[in-house]
Design goal:
Distance between the termini: 32 Å
Low-confidence stretches: 1-7, 359-382
Mean pLDDT: 86
Oligomer: single chain
Number of strands: 2
Strand order of the largest sheet: 1-2
Structural class: mainly alpha
Number of helices: 14
Order of helices and strands: HHHHHHHHHHHHHHEE
Helix content: over 70%
Largest sheet: 2 strands, antiparallel
Shape: globular
Strand content: under 5%
Length: 382
Amino acid sequence: MEFPPASRPRERFVFIDGLRGIAALYVAVFHFWLLADGLSGGAVSGVTPGALTLLLMHGDLGVDIFFVISGFVISYSMLGERIGLEFIRTFALRRSLRLDPPYWIVLASVVLIRVIEASVFRKPVELPSPWTFTTNVMYLQDIMGTPNLLSISWTLCLEIQFYLVYVLLLAIVQRAFSTNVRLELRLAAVFGPVFVISGAFLYAQATAHGVFINYWYAFFLGALTCWALYARTGFGVWAATTTVVLVATAITRQPQPAAVAGAAALIYVAGRLGRLTTWLRAGPLQYLGGISYSLYLVHAPFGWGIVGLGNALAKSSVLAHFGSIGLAIGASIVLAHLLRSYVEVPGIQLGRRLTSGAPARSMSVSPVAGDIQADALATPPG
């Protein structure tokens, strides 16, 4: 895709990192609060202020924000690249080293927890079959219809599909059309039909279980935001697409499209004002952004376990339930820090060493993980 390299910002997009950190914490708190409320028979929500309850009830919107961020990040990382076998090899290797080790460790921990629980409570061990474990390791469990060992991993499965589809479509844009054809027309011809199908699923509120098409509109709008800012595809196309997504909220009465459109608008405005490198620079937000992928992974099995234990000890004490939520948040952050420091960062560094000198500039990215700048421009936080 044509792109003037000189116009690339030379600083880290701290706004994206901060937004990712907020979204990750939002999802974690939502899950902890919802579980504690269910276990307490509604006692937790009964004492939560109304506005805060409304906010917490929609914490799953953090996932939709992740998808927008992911689309923006992966699109940015591929601007100016020629999609070929060498690029794909480098990109896939770095992504694997970036995303797989933390995910696999958490998967193994889930199995280990099952063994420990069986030993403590003296009950039969319910281990996943080799096929179930293999499909989970390969991000294929939803497609193959096997159980999710990690409940939140369905989003990672979709992410992998997003990456594959995006690379394929971008390669078609580059190879199936003459460069004399306007970039906007090439992108519309290739990406447009997929977005239309995704939009049809959105408006019809249909579900294709385990397949990327349901959430492609969010990922695509993130990519389109990047194109509007850096590939000169024009404000009009971006605005029209964002409006189409926003209108879906009014028609479907679902908040997800509004969250997607809102996240894209925030990124676009920050980019137009030159604030992607300054907004949300606060240290705590950048720290959360750095550990966001690990936080997303560990909060489900470990944080939920703490909330469940708190319920067993809380009896009828609402205060104890809130205490278990706070403990779950703190413990998840500590575990995420350790996973980031001793697994994620070494994986990133190994990926750079193994692919040093390769032509591809892109990095491993995910909605809740990844350094968003080109290798030469980024330093992993944490």
